[in-house]
Structure formats: structure tokens, C-alpha cells
TrEMBL record:
Top-level taxon of origin: Bacteria
Protein family per UniProt: Belongs to the short-chain dehydrogenases/reductases (SDR) family.
Listed name of the protein: SDR family NAD(P)-dependent oxidoreductase
Organism: Streptomyces tibetensis
Signal sequence annotation: none
Record Pfam families: adh_short
Length: 259
């Protein structure tokens, strides 16, 4: 069973976040998505609405604490106290470590890790989550948050940080009735996945198709997961039946990682 609540999904205009917004809106929750690009947000909101999943879209860069404060204020003003927070926004990024720039390192860490802290802190402080029964915070980490990924040190470091943050804050919030978990996708077919394959094709001087074959060969299921397969675990974690699952990091990866 799932009590209807207001769900804030960061980076909900694409890939996994959009699939999560679709599932949560279809389950009867009021959904707010955010992103940095107004045109992409509007396009996603129209597409979701056309598929019977209306959402509110707000512009915000979640790596900026001032914009996060305004995002949460506007979201609460529009749809009421936030009962479900999905920290999904993120970016890929890596390369040979000796060649990484300060700018890339900082942007990957601030987009993937600082943002999870900023949005979580704001939702706890002023988002009204304590006023709502069955509060849930779900952080989209990665199997790269549990094992090192070659040529992706900033990404792996950021996602290990998200897993650690989740485990610590999950323990803090459990006595307050708020469950907090990380969902760790493996390879999921999204625009980001395509960018990742292009980066490896450049680094290994091969084609994107060859990289895809090499990655698929590592996955026991033999294929990438779909955004909706990730979204279905997120939806389950919002249900009353999932109340005792907290401070965990759960994989959706076709068997890629079993840790
Ligand atoms: P995507 O590129 O399709 O979507 C990412 C979304 O985040 C976009 O809507 C983008 O606009 C938004 N975003 C990025 N930076 C932002 C910022 N500073 N402020 C606001 N919004 C921002 O990627 P995806 O594959 O759907 O990834 C979603 C999440 O899943 C990410 O956290 C990613 O690390 C994680 N993940 C993806 C995969 C995969 O294989 N696709 C695997 C493991 C984890």
C-alpha cells in the first residue's frame, strides 16, 4: 500500500529520474521534478503528462545550495510538505587520474554528492518531511558506489560518498519514522549510458558498439537494466510494506555486482 504523498525527484527530466517521476505520479503521488534546463524540463513534463503522469517542474541546479533552498521552498508552496525525496540528479565523469582537472573533479563531486547533502538537509529542515507519515528518502547511487570503476575515479568516489551518507543518515532518521536508502543501478540504458560508452570508446580507441558488447558480457543477465526497472524498486521503497528497509544500499544491476 502507498499513502499518496508529495514526491520531489531531482533531475527528473531524463533517464532514470523521468522513469521514477512517471511511476510515482502513476501511483497517485504529487510529483515535482527539477533540472537546470527550462526547455528540457518542459518537454519532459509534457511527455509525462501525455502519459497520464502530471508533474510540477522547477528549475534548479542542485549543486548550488541557494538554488536548492529556493527549489524546496517553491516545491512545498506548490504541492505541500515533501513526503518522498528522490536524489537522482547526477553526471558521469572520469579519465586518466593524472590528467583529471580540478574543475571536473569538483563538478562530479558537487553534482553527485554535495547535492545529495544539500537537498536532504533542506528537505529535513524546511521541506516538511517530519509532518508526513511514511517519509522516505531514496538516493540513486550506483554499483560504482560499492566497487571501483576503471577510469572513473571521481564518479566512483562520489557514489561511494552517497552510499556512506545514506548509511549514516538512515540510522539518524530511523527513530523519526523516515526511511532512507540508496538504490545502486549497474548499467542502465539512458542518455548518460550513451555518453559513458562514447568516453570509453575514445579512451580505448574503439567503437561505442564494441564497448557495449564488452559491458554486456560483464552482466550475468546479459543486458543493461531499464530505467523502469530501477524506478520499480524506488516505488516499492515508498510503500508502507518497505518501512523496515532503511540505511541500505540495494543493487539493480542484472547480477553485475553481488556485494
Ligand atoms: P541522465 O543524464 O539521463 O539524467 C541525469 C539527470 O540529472 C538529467 O535530468 C540532468 O538534467 C540532471 N542533472 C544533472 N546535473 C544536475 C544539476 N546540477 N542540477 C539539477 N539536475 C541535474 O542520467 P541517468 O542515467 O538517468 O542518471 C540518473 C542517476 O542514476 C544519476 O545519479 C546517475 O549517476 C545514476 N546512475 C546511472 C547509471 C546508468 O547506467 N545510466 C548507472 C548507475 C547510476
Amino acid at each position: 500500500m502507498s499513502l499518496p504523498r508529495h514526491a520531489l525527484v531531482t533531475g527528473g527530466s531524463s533517464g532514470i529520474g523521468k522513469a521514477i517521476a512517471q511511476r510515482l505520479a502513476s501511483a497517485g503521488h504529487s510529483v515535482t521534478i527539477c533540472g537546470r534546463d527550462s526547455a528540457r524540463l518542459q518537454e519532459a513534463a509534457k511527455d509525462l503528462s501525455d502519459h497520464g503522469a502530471p508533474v510540477t517542474s522547477l528549475i534548479a541546479d542542485v549543486s548550488d545550495p541557494r538554488q536548492v533552498r529556493e527549489l524546496v521552498r517553491q516545491a512545498v508552496e506548490t504541492n505541500g510538505p515533501i513526503g518522498i525525496l528522490v536524489n537522482n540528479a547526477g553526471r558521469n565523469g572520469g579519465g586518466k587520474t593524472a590528467e583529471l582537472t580540478d574543475e571536473l573533479w569538483r563538478d562530479v563531486l558537487s553534482t553527485n554528492l554535495d547535492s545529495v547533502f544539500y537537498v536532504t538537509r533542506e528537505v529535513l529542515a524546511r521541506g516538511g518531511i517530519h509532518e508526513v507519515d511514511h517519509g522516505r528518502i531514496i538516493n540513486i547511487a550506483s554499483t560504482a558506489g560499492k566497487q571501483g570503476v576503471l577510469l572513473a575515479a571521481p564518479y566512483s568516489a562520489s557514489k561511494h560518498g552517497v552510499v556512506g551518507f545514506t548509511k549514516a543518515v538512515g540510522k539518524e532518521l530511523a527513530p523519526q519514522g523516515i526511511a532512507m536508502n540508496a538504490v545502486c543501478p549497474g548499467y542502465v540504458e539512458t542518455p548518460m549510458a550513451s555518453r559513458v560508452r562514447q568516453a570509453y570508446a575514445g579512451a580505448w580507441d574503439t567503437t561505442e558498439a564494441e564497448v557495449l558488447s564488452a559491458f554486456e558480457a560483464k552482466i550475468p543477465l546479459g543486458r543493461y537494466s531499464t530505467p523502469d526497472e530501477v524506478a520499480s524498486l524506488v516505488e516499492y521503497l515508498t510503500t508502507e510494506g518497505a518501512a523496515s528497509i532503511t540505511a541500505q544500499a540495494l543493487n539493480v544491476c542484472g547480477g553485475l555486482g553481488n556485494f
